[in-house]
Write a structure and sequence with these properties.
The complex is a heterodimer of chains A (about 250) and B (about 290).
Chain A (H helix, E strand, L loop, with lengths): L5 E10 L3 E11 L4 E5 L6 H9 L7 E10 L2 E2 L5 H6 L2 E4 L11 H9 L6 H14 L1 H5 L10 H13 L5 E5 L7 H18 L2 E6 L2 H7 L2 E6 L2 E7 H6 L1 H8 L5
Parallel strand pairs in A: 3-8, 3-9, 6-7, 7-8
Antiparallel strand pairs in A: 1-2, 1-4, 4-5, 9-10
Chain B lengths: L1 H31 L6 H17 L4 H22 L9 H23 L14 E4 L2 E4 H23 L1 H11 L1 H6 L4 H27 L8 H12 L4 H26 L7 H12 L14
Antiparallel strand pairs in B: 1-2
The chains are: A alpha/beta (about 250), B mainly alpha (about 290).
């Protein structure tokens, strides 16, 4: 049994010192795997991701209990900057591209922390264009005027510029047409297989997430309601109607 | 006709002086989306520090260096004790904070350097220069040259350097900037220090023109119409806005003034700004909010 890349032990997250967003979540991400957090709106998926990446602090959230470990280090109160340095990057829900920057400038910002030299930065950029050829065509366009799917690609590409070991992907399917969602997940799959990048993704669209993930956690009211390999989860008839929105087989 | 051009050119050159102040606002607006009410106080603080040190017999360039260092320390203090506590708060909160900051800086300047008026001599003669039959102020031409160099430096900074691109990223989306590992604190320190530098340059030129005194912080009021016309987010816009204000107020004063009784210069820019607000609220070069449907 290899040591997990990321491990959460019973974390509890509170916003503004009073709003309990995550009650008790424990999970593990094995190196090279894709793990899905499933559950309804408001279940605590986004908060869990932001607690890991350190972004919860910027929104006045706080991990008040439990520990988070990444690469065997305690990162419970680490800053987003130091985590990017360690290869842990979050892609925010709703894409959050820099609207007035060009597509290429968006991508460049993602590489600043990890790449000191211009040559390394350019090399990294070419790699992103290899996986997202469409972004190369749009490189000079203002990111704010590209389509939703393209913005999602920019957001993922920007995170990959940091050459991460683990990407936290929040609702990649949100607001996108089914075909585009499929395309995004195919790229995630390819990156995972070819580059060994691990993904922890929060997703309301359970059917697509279960199709691509290795392991799934079902979150309800800030707790883990069920967990298992995606094959197991798909076969558990009690979960299907309740959480996964799948037709009972 | 020659007289018309003389007034026009004189106005354009005077307008550059407004642009210099406006650029300071643009910098901070770009990086934090907030109208920095304290910019005028920073102009005053820089000029007052400079002139007080100079009067104590310190050489010009050393004085310039020490004053710049003071502005960096001020930027550091603003970031450390004000901005850091206000991450992700609504812009109005930040605006109110800069309003308070403005009075603190003015008070600090007064406490340290006293309240008397200082004359400032930069060694540039203000004798009119004759160019093609027109009389132009040498000092204004010098100021225009300084503004030109400043604009070239700032556009290079914003568009070509890592710091500049990070800075624009922070302006667009703070949370996303944090997510890619940009250190907001470092960016803010740099922006406020650069704004302090621009304030110092503006303060020296304005101080040489009007004398270094507390009314210097009121030049911000002239920067406001410049920003409305040029747009809050564009350095080029601040220049063009300044030129439009400078030229139009002088032309209005000379040609419309006699008809309706003079004193137009003081309020004409605001009327012009009002017209722009009705027709083009983002200004000529301002970034309009990108909204996709």
């Amino acid at each position: 049994m290899t040591a997990p890349l990321l491990q959460l032990d019973n974390i509890e997250v509170i916003y503004d010192k009073v709003i309990l967003a995550v009650r008790n979540i424990s999970l593990k991400v094995a190196p090279g795997s894709i793990v899905a957090l499933l559950g309804a709106n408001g279940a605590g998926k986004s908060t869990t991701l932001k607690a890991i990446s350190g972004l919860a602090n910027a929104e006045r959230g706080e991990v008040v209990d439990g520990r988070i470990y990444y690469l065997n280090r305690d990162i419970t109160s680490a800053s987003p900057h130091s985590l990017v340095e360690l290869g842990l990057v979050q892609v925010l829900e709703g894409r959050h591209c820099f609207a007035h920057l060009s597509v290429e400038e968006n991508l460049l910002t993602g590489g600043y922390v990890r790449h000191r030299s211009r040559a390394r930065l350019t090399e990294s950029l070419e790699k992103i264009y290899h996986y997202f050829p469409r972004l190369k065509l749009l490189r000079r366009n203002q990111a704010g005027y590209t389509s939703g799917g393209e913005q999602q690609m920019v957001a993922i590409g920007r995170a990959l510029m940091a050459e991460p070991k683990l990407v936290l992907l929040d609702e990649p399917s949100m607001g996108l047409a089914p075909l585009v969602v499929e395309e995004i997940f195919e790229i995630v799959h390819t990156l995972n297989r070819q580059q060994g990048v691990s993904f922890l993704l929060a997703e309301q669209n359970a059917s697509i997430a279960l199709k691509y993930a290795d392991v799934g956690y079902i979150i309800e009211s800030g707790r883990v309601a069920a967990e298992g390999t995606t094959a197991d989860l798909k076969n558990r008839s009690d979960l299907q109607a309740l959480y996964l929105g799948l037709e009972a087989a | 006709m020659e007289f018309f051009f003389e007034v026009l050119l004189g106005g354009l050159l005077a307008g550059v002086m407004y642009s210099l102040v406006a650029i300071g606002f643009v910098l901070i607006y770009k990086a934090s989306g907030v109208f920095n009410f304290a910019q005028g106080s920073m102009v005053l603080f820089a000029a007052l520090t400079f002139v007080s040190l100079l009067e104590r017999g310190i050489p010009f360039w050393l004085t310039f260096g020490i004053t710049m260092l003071t502005m960096v320390v001020l930027a550091w203090a603003i970031e450390r004790f004000m901005l850091r506590k206000l991450v992700n708060r609504p812009p109005i909160t930040l605006f109110m904070a800069t309003l308070g900051l403005s009075y603190m800086i003015e008070g600090l300047a007064q406490a340290v350097w006293g309240a008397q008026v200082h004359g400032l001599e930069l060694g540039i003669s203000d004798e009119p220069l004759e160019l093609g039959g027109m009389l132009l102020s040498q000092f204004d031409i010098f100021a225009a040259g300084v503004a030109g160099v400043l604009v070239i430096f700032l556009s290079w900074l914003f568009n070509k350097t890592r710091t500049g691109i990070s800075l624009r990223a922070v302006a667009d989306d703070q949370l996303a900037a944090l997510a890619v590992g940009i250190k907001l604190q470092r960016i803010w320190l740099i922006v406020w220090a650069v704004a302090g530098f621009v304030g110092l340059v503006a303060g020296l030129l304005w101080g040489a023109r009007l004398g270094v005194q507390f009314s210097l912080s009121l030049v911000v009021l002239k920067a406001l119409p410049v920003l409305i016309i040029g747009g809050f987010t564009s350095i080029g816009g601040a220049i063009v806005g300044g030129l439009i204000i400078g030229a139009s107020e002088k032309l209005a004063e000379v040609f419309i003034g006699p008809i309706i009784g003079g004193g137009i210069e003081n309020w004409f820019p605001y009327v012009l700004a009002l017209v722009f607000l009705l027709v083009r609220p983002a200004g000529i070069f301002g970034e309009r909010a990108i909204e996709r449907v």
